[in-house]
Amino acid sequence: MLVIRADLVDAMVAHARADHPDEACGIIAGPEDSDRPERFVAMMNAERSPTFYRFDSGEQLKVWRAMDDADEEPVVIYHSHTATEAYPSRTDISYAAEPGAHYVLISTRDADQHELRSYRIVDGEVTEEPVRIVDAYQTA
Q1: Tell me: the pLDDT tens digits for 101-134?
Q2: How far is the C-alpha of 87 from the C-alpha of 81, rounded, in Å?
Q3: Domains of the chain with bracketed CATH
Q4: Through-space distance between the first and last CA atoms of the chain, rounded to whole angstroms
Q5: Into which EC class is this enzyme placed (predicted)?
Q6: What does pTM read for this prediction?
Q7: Spatial contact of 18 and 24, defined as CB atoms under 8 Å apart
Q8: CA 67 to CA 64: how far, in whole Å?
Q9: Is the distance from CB of 125 to CB of 92 less than 8 angstroms?
Q10: Is the pLDDT of residue 12 over 80?
Q11: What is the 3-state secondary structure of the chain?
């Protein structure tokens, strides 16, 4: 299950709406081994395409180095689908390289509402998971 703060969901949806009709993409970093998304990072879709996304390689290198320096990892990797449901495409599945990440898809095909779904993608196998949106994380 993905447990995520409402402000982070709002940030992903706003990014997806702002980049529409092109796909938006980015990550939410969190402390290593925490499974807790905390730091929203909107990234540029190097493809500038309504049907495909790719992180800019230079930007991705900077973001991943910053995560390493901060002892963080990509807890959520998100992107939008502009004309289809929020389900990973074959290309999305083939590019999924972070087995510990939650892959969040946001469909912006409907101008009045969005669809947000989360998946685990490991070795080409897609498993949908529930999403629980919270105001704040519980402290242990």
Answers
A1: 999 999 999 989 999 999 999 999 999 999 999 9
A2: 8
A3: 2-134 (3.40.140.10)
A4: 18
A5: hydrolase
A6: 0.96
A7: yes
A8: 5
A9: no
A10: yes
A11: CEEEEHHHHHHHHHHHHHHCCCCCEEEEEEECCCCCCCEEEEECECCCCCCCCCECHHHHHHHHHHHHHCCEEEEEEEEEECCCCCCCCHHHHHHCCCCCCEEEEEECCCCCCCEEEEEEEECCEEEEECEEEECCCCCC
User: Residue 119: beta bridge partners?
Assistant: 103, 128
Are the CB atoms for 88 and 121 separated by under 8 Å? yes
CA 41/CA 63 separation, integer angstroms: 8
Specify the residue for token string 């703060």: 5
Instruction: Say how many residues make up the chain.
Output: 140
Angstrom distance (rounded) from CA 76 to CA 56: 17
Give CA–CA dist 131/119, Å, rounded.
Answer: 9
